[in-house]
């Protein structure tokens, strides 16, 4: 979505990252000069969270292919505390940096990037510069400031019927007051007819703040317009309260440290400010504050007290982030085995429910009872005749000696042993 003639590098990417970290909304394709200069200052000083975002995005493959809207949407949709955790920040980038058409960002991406094309960048820059020069600008200058008298610095002094110079820097504006639309209404005590204002040389040339094309819009191809001299008459009158419009309620972009009732958590954390921890560290020592929160040379040490504080903070203010930031121990079912003792207790209870084991005497009695039912063994005999008598009582399948051969005592005992 950038100009084809614009050379996009990692350095120009840093400028876009810095602008995306700013809290205000603006036209991301027609950048106000003040926004661009502030972004360059952030890059030069390596301020946080730009420094962390730059390191993470520079390490992302193909990052220069993504559109400016995708970069803005990614940074402005992230939780404001993500940059404190590099691992979580890189995971967020990998999960959310998705774009198919780099040249034509979607409406969702432009909305997330807070792109406001209705805010003309040059006109906004002109208004800011006019206010800086001391001119009254609606929506920027305070109408209740006593310095806004009922005549302007560029009011022509050639009209004696309206503004009369009485000398020594004193002007008579009674005629101008009578011709105003609020003549006759009750005004504040400060609306005097003879007031002393600073003379302005009508021929004085106001130095316009010209913003170069390469500095203004980062390659959108649109020439930056030099801010013209704005010497318009601002005759601020006291408007009756009945004619004043009530300003639309809006959350501030900056919160002073303190306790706020009725402010949504996402609004408070999205605002540009410092945390209560930073305030406490600053009260201890500004050098300590700089080393811990700016230079990052003091590493935050974890402790049970810090973990408990983070847990209470997440439970009270950010319960949706509880599972992402803490490992919640699962609930153990009732009756589950957790230690060796519980497992052994279960085994002992099971064994106790089994029938009792037989004693040695019971086993011996059963064996003797069983053996009594078996056939008795044949004696080997002390002589050849006794051995032959026992051999003749053997079943035929155990009489291995062939008929007609000599029946020796050894052969007959072998057959008897086989039978036994």
Automatic annotation (TrEMBL):
Coiled-coil segments on the chain, per record: none
Compositionally biased residues, Polar residues: 180-199
InterPro entries: PDDEXK-like_dom_sf
Top-rank taxon, per record: Bacteria
Region of interest (Disordered), residue spans: 138-162, 180-216
Protein name, entry field: Exodeoxyribonuclease
Species in which this protein is naturally found: Salmonella enterica
